[in-house]
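Re: beginner question about structure tokens

> Can someone show what the tokenized structure looks like for a real chain? I only ever see the sequence side.

Sure, here's an example I had lying around. Input first:
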Amino acid sequence: MAATASDKRRSLRQRLQEPGLIAAPGVFEMISARVADRMGFDALYMTGYGAVASYLGLPDAGLATYTDMVGRAGSIARGTSTPLIADADTGYGGLLNVDHTVKGYEAAGIAAIQLEDQEFPKKCGHTPGRRVIPAEDMAKKVRVAVEARDSDDFLVIARTDALTTLGLDEALRRAEMYAEAGADIIFVEAPETVEQMEKICRTIDKPLLANMVEGGKTPLLPKAELEKLGYKIAIYPGTAFLAMGRAVEDVYTTLRETGTTEGALDRLYKFEDFSRLMGFERVWDFDKKHAD
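And the corresponding structure tokens:
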């Protein structure tokens, strides 16, 4: 029997209480989600950057709407058996919007929602020019998010982007406020040194999330070091779409330069295996069952 949304939420909350780091690969559409879902991860992470890029072909700069994002997240949640953590940007407006967003994401089958304290329109956390709202306003958003959920198993992740422009002390002050407001997990975005990461982990008494972005501001650390520092979750939002972009460009170059893809076959997913990944076995079995 397929895992229900409630099952997946309970699974993630329980895993959060157990030893060891939760590694959550970034997924952004159903191909990356299906691939990751088969690999035994404790959680998946729907990256806002990747979802906006793949769905709209636009930068992650506050251009996607609530409807865009909840639809994408719901498709991934319904099509996978692994608990899904989903980016919900700033909550898409004021307090009433946050209430609506939390209820919508929970109804869509998400296991955990991530909300951040940037001004609207927001920007990707590893790009310049980010500005944050007053900490008190974000704390209200966190309280509303916690009140809006139907189940305590639906986790609220509070992210602060204050470090880059306002410094680590302000980021830590905000993180503590958001923890006191009821956030289940705290996400201090874009520390630039291991020393900053150490201080974050020493200061905040809540499960902490580390954002491992290849080419981003934060040092890429191995699992053992992240665990030693005190992180509980590590997300890898860009890994899949960066890999996909490189691979697609590579095979298209082969096609353009040689006029055939024959020289790239060893770099392609086998067609029959890909068809099975997308669920064609059920179609084949259905056709056999109902054949004249």
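Each token stands for a local structural state, so reading them left to right follows the chain. The chain has two domains: 5-237, 245-289.
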